[in-house]
Amino acid sequence: MAADYVPIPCARYSELELCIMHGEALRIRWRHRGLDEVARVWPLDLRTRRGVEYLILRDAEGRRQWRRLDRLLEFAPLAAGA
């Protein structure tokens, strides 16, 4: 595991898995370069690389991105059509 990585609680990981399985859009807030960012995204998968867990997502512009799970400050499913 990467020295600076802090795993998220298993319950939160499971919530992400359910959102992926159901194809639900998410509102996420994460820390990036010392700033909090917020976005609407579509979660695609969860992966582990070099001991760090990531959420693979598609952003509003259709770009595929990776977000470290320990940098996610919060996430919540969005209502269909939101």
What do you see in this structure?
With 82 residues, the chain is an alpha+beta fold. The protein has a single domain (10-77), classed as SH3 type barrels (Roll). It is 16% helix and 49% strand. The protein has a five-stranded antiparallel β-sheet with strand order 4-3-2-1-5. The longest helix is centred in the N-terminal third of the chain and has 13 residues, at 10-22. It starts with 9 loop residues before the first helix and ends in a 5-residue tail after the last strand. The model has no long low-confidence stretch (mean pLDDT 92).
User: Strand order, biggest sheet?
Assistant: 4-3-2-1-5
In the predicted model, the low-confidence regions spanning at least 5 consecutive residues are none
Order of H and E elements = HEEEEE
For the sheet with most strands, the description reads: 5 strands, antiparallel
DSSP summary: helix tally: 1
Question: Can you tell me the number of structural domains?
Answer: 1
Radius of gyration: 12 Å
What structural class results from the helix and strand content? alpha+beta
CATH class: Mainly Beta
Amino-to-carboxy terminus distance: 37 Å
What helical percentage do the residues reach? 10-25%
Strand content: over 45%
Name the CATH architecture: Roll
In total, the number of strands is 5
